[in-house]
Amino acid sequence: MATMLPKHIIFPLSLFLFVLHEFPVANAMLVKDMHAFCKETNDVNFCLKYIGTDKRILAARDLNDVLLIAFSQSKIQVTNAAKQINKVRQKFSGPIGKERINFCERNYGLASVMFQEAYEMGQQKMLAYRAHLTAEGGLNYVRDCEDEWKKNGPIQKSHVTFYNTNVVKLFSIIRLIIGKLKH
């Protein structure tokens, strides 16, 4: 036999279910909007993988929140690159290799600081453009590391190209968002 809930519980419960059904996540970006946004990027699958599947996207209210996710994902890539640099450090015993590793370690450290600053600045919507410029500084540190492997001695393959490429792609998403926020 079914048990009846008291009336003082039924009304709030009904109201809660109604609100939940009618307004699932207040002001949240819809999945279709995120997919449409990613279609505007240079690499739809990359956008969907790094931005669209980030657990914070479910709470994103607008493009400014997506911008914060892109800053954060950039910092994650930089952190992963720094870990990779530490893993491959022992492979370089010569002076040029050591110099390149130290250069990249320093640059990725600076890039990490820049992306963290961009994230913090981006939390204030009015500073989104300045945050983007700070992130661009981080991108330049990453690119300089990649370029270091092609100069000052024999050309070698960088061990952080994967992360460099990801940061470049994330920055193109950041630039797209900034363009949309300006309009």
What is the number of strand segments?
Answer: 0
The pLDDT mean sits at: 87
SSE string, helices as H and strands as E: HHHHHHH
For the terminal residues, how far apart are their CA atoms?
Answer: 61 Å
What is the global morphology? elongated
Radius of gyration over C-alpha positions, nearest whole angstrom: 22 Å
How many helical stretches? 7
Low-confidence stretches: 8-26
Find the structural class using helix and strand composition: mainly alpha
Largest sheet: none
Question: Which percent range describes the beta-strand content?
Answer: under 5%
Helix content: over 70%
Descriptive account of the structure:
Helix 2 (31-39) runs antiparallel to helix 3 and helix 5 runs antiparallel to helix 6. The radius of gyration is 22 Å and the shape is elongated. The protein has 183 residues and is mainly α. It is built from seven helices and no strands.
Gist of the model:
The protein has 183 residues and is an all-alpha fold.
Topology:
Elements lengths: L6 H16 L8 H9 L4 H9 L10 H26 L6 H28 L5 H21 L12 H22 L1
Helix pairs in contact: 2-3, 4-5, 4-7, 5-6, 6-7
Question: Could you name the key traits of this structure?
Answer:
mainly alpha, 72% helix, 183 residues
